[in-house]
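Take one protein record:
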Amino acid sequence: MRRIGWICMCCLALVSCRDAEQADRYAAECYRHGRELRAEGRHTEAMQCFMDAAESGTEDFVLLGRVYSNMANMCRQAERHALACELYGQSTELFRKGNDTLAVAYALNNMAWELAVQGEKSQALQLIDSAVSVCPSPAVRSKVQESRAAACLYAGENDSAVLYAQGIQDELYGNMLLAQAYALNGQCDSAMHYAGQVAGQTDNPRYLDDIYYILAHCDSSASAPDIIALAEKRTDVQRELESFKSEMAQAVLLIRPPSQTSRRFLLCIIGLFVFIGAAAWLGWFIYRRTSQKQKVRQTILRLQQSKQFLEEIHPDDYQAFCRFVDTQLWGLATKLQKRNLSEKEVRIAVLVLLGFSYAQIADILHRAENGIGKDKYVIAKKLGSSVKGLKAALLHIACRN
């Protein structure tokens, strides 16, 4: 029975491992395909791939962290900043589980940026400090500088925003923040300078929307046709941006709350219930077999102690003998007959089970003692047992359903 239990546990472990490998492969494929679709601008299909990866049941925590980071980036582009912050938080926890400290730092920084956009400057700065403490590498320090500048900018602290933006290594993003900060501070010449640089560096509509506005409103020396041309450019950019945001908003609608129980966890629960059920069945089977053996032994003892035993078993009337044995010992006579034992062999087998010696059996059946020994050997051979183990084999047959 112990072997059966170990076999069940091993089978469950193999099934679980195989399922885990399949989940990991499926999640990696969904993530890769989602990245490709996102690069092609097919945002809804990309988000569906990311959701499939998130719900695959994989325990590759770093891969899951990247999945949630990509979904958060798409929420950021759709201006769903609260949801983006929540998804970045989930990616942070997954990167921690995967022991990827650099990814944890970047995820914390992304959360800080989302909080900054929502005007939560103090919380954003706390997360920025956490990101640097987790991984104080030059790359992280450079990245958090952008979030510090953005936090000050959205909090209306334009001088501080300029100070932090001047230390940003990403020239495009630094120029963008400087143009915005100087424009809000009323320093039009500086705002125009950095806005012009951004306009020549990128065609990203999210940047150009603000840049064209700055160029049109800060340049008081520009002629009316130039301002009209800038306004028309901004209108075209806004149309493109609205179309992009609409597509991204549709993709964001596909995001579902993360399931509290992964597919693998559910399989483990099911496996646990199967194992408990199998263990309960084995326990019941063992209990019933033990109980039945105990009852058979009690019956044997009672028959041995019975003074009217020879009259009860009807040694000369085979049919009456079989009826009595079947009634007392759970159909043993019928079971032995099905194993091709003759009348003589059935009688001997029952008396062997009841504990009688060769001499006693010979006396009851009016047979020679030597013949009983030969018959016992034949019975053992038919039952697939040895002569020494015949009594145990007969007890086993009596207890079997």
Summary: The radius of gyration is 42 Å. Residues 23-204+214-220+243-265 form a domain with the Serine Threonine Protein Phosphatase 5, Tetratricopeptide repeat fold (CATH 1.25.40.10). Residues 263-305 form the longest helix (43 residues). Residues 11-15 have pLDDT under 50 and may be disordered.
